[in-house]
């Protein structure tokens, strides 16, 4: 995919970027950056997109993202609501792969961290009890400064590197080498599709968003995402249906319509192919 490149500001008093965000909703679009990112969602809920993976997120999750791994957190509709008393809150740490210098990662003590950062190219999610421990340490990290803050970050990374409570998010994902160039073309397209999951998809309309003719757009989209437009939209709708199945009590037919499927039989077939179970069985599990 071709998201926007996010320019992470450099802080003169710190070798890495650290921020504690408290917003009505997360504002960054679908994007990537060369910096490694450790993202702790303190409170919020919605759908997240990492590499080829689309899943629901909620408060408490901690994700480690490798260099140039596209990602996007899309809040539930309640978060842009001014009357919502629970903000979208996150603690985000970003640092360049060599922020401590290349020789630093060659030390015997830091080799595990170097291997961790390489593994993070597909995105890594922390599981308990590691997640709970790191969440507490990230809260404390914000209150530190200077060398104490830097050593605390290295200690966090070392704990994650040595733990087995870490699972890949988007296995097999390989960042496109062309991501080093800024591009808005598919960012516009994917943003449009994400905001209108349930709406019919018109190839001429989507191609026009990318300033391409339909045939050229289809070739381009497949070359950049590894999927046809139809496959991408179907995956997006199934993930949205998973969200509806776990959060609402609507019938399978109603959820099929809400997720943009015109035919409930096709919805059940596509859902089973993607998730390995029928929508009804999926709902029973959750």
Structure notes:
The protein has 286 residues and is of the alpha+beta class. It has two domains: 4-168, Jelly Rolls (Sandwich); 183-285, Arc Repressor Mutant, subunit A. Helix content is 40%, strand content 19%. It is built from ten helices and eleven strands. The strands form three sheets. Strands 2-9-4-7-10-11 form a six-stranded antiparallel β-sheet, covered by helices on one side. A three-stranded antiparallel β-sheet has the order 6-5-8, covered by helices on one side. It has a two-stranded parallel ribbon with strand order 1-3. Strand 5 (45-50) and strand 6 form a beta hairpin. The chain is globular and about 60 Å long. The model has no long low-confidence stretch (mean pLDDT 85). One of its GO terms (molecular function) is DNA-binding transcription factor activity. It holds the Pfam family HTH_18. InterPro entries: Homeodomain-like_sf, HTH_AraC, RmlC-like_jellyroll, RmlC_Cupin_sf, Tscrpt_reg_AraC-type_HTH. Residues 187-285 form the HTH araC/xylS-type domain.
């Amino acid at each position: 995919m071709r998201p926007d490149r996010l320019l992470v500001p450099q802080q003169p008093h710190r070798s890495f970027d650290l921020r504690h965000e408290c917003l009505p909703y997360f504002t960054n679009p679908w994007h990537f950056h060369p910096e490694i990112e450790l993202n702790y969602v303190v409170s919020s809920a919605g759908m997240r997109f990492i590499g080829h993976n689309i899943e629901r997120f909620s408060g408490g999750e901690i994700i480690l993202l490798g260099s140039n791994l596209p990602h996007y957190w899309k809040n539930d509709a309640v978060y842009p609501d001014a009357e919502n008393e629970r903000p979208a809150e996150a603690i985000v740490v970003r640092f360049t792969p060599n922020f401590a210098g290349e020789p630093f990662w060659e030390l015997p003590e830091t080799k595990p961290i170097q291997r961790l950062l390489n593994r993070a190219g597909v995105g890594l999610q922390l599981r308990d009890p590691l997640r709970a421990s790191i969440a507490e340490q990230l809260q404390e990290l914000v209150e530190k400064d200077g060398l104490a803050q830097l050593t605390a970050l290295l200690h966090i990374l070392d704990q994650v590197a040595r733990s087995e409570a870490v699972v890949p998010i988007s296995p097999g994902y390989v960042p496109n080498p062309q991501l080093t160039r800024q591009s808005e073309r598919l960012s516009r397209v994917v943003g449009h599709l994400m905001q209108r999951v349930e709406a019919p998809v018109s190839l001429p309309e989507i191609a026009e968003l990318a300033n391409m003719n339909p045939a050229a757009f289809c070739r381009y989209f497949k070359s950049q995402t590894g999927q046809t437009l139809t496959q991408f939209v179907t995956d997006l709708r199934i993930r949205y249906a998973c969200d509806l199945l776990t959060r609402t009590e609507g019938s399978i037919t109603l959820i099929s319509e809400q997720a943009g499927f015109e035919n409930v039989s096709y919805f059940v077939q596509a859902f089973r192919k993607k998730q390995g179970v029928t929508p009804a069985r999926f709902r029973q599990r959750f």
